[in-house]
Design a protein that fits this description.
Blueprint: H1 2-16, E1 35-43, E2 48-59, E3 67-73, E4 78-85, E5 88-96, E6 99-108, E7 111-120, E8 128-135
Antiparallel strand pairs: 1-2, 1-8, 2-3, 3-4, 4-5, 5-6, 6-7, 7-8
Length: 136
Amino acid sequence: MKTTRLLFVVLALVFSACEITLVEPRYDDRDQVVGSYRLEEYSQSWRVYSNFTIYIRKVGTGYGADEVLIENFYNAGIDVVARVYGNRITIPLQYVNGYEVEGSAMIYLNEISFTYRVRDTYTRSSPDYCEATAWL
């Protein structure tokens, strides 16, 4: 009987000393934009509408990862790197396959509104200023 009580006391002490820690995964702002989008683009420079598909994928992992890859940007088959911060997307100035690109976007639920500038560096053409809306 004494042994049973002693065992009960020891087990009670052991289990009361245990602490359960719940670790929740870090929220990744990029999760809200990853996917395939139908995009309608308006060229302010050429006054032309275009419709095409873009794909947005995560680039990098771990704490502080904020980059995404926008595939088929400008319907030119180029892949542009962008950064996601909350509901904003920033496309820093970059040169990709002969195109100079920069811009930004805002995320509203399942819609992304882009404004950007693209210039063909091979033909040294004037920049094309565009506005575009993408839907899931």
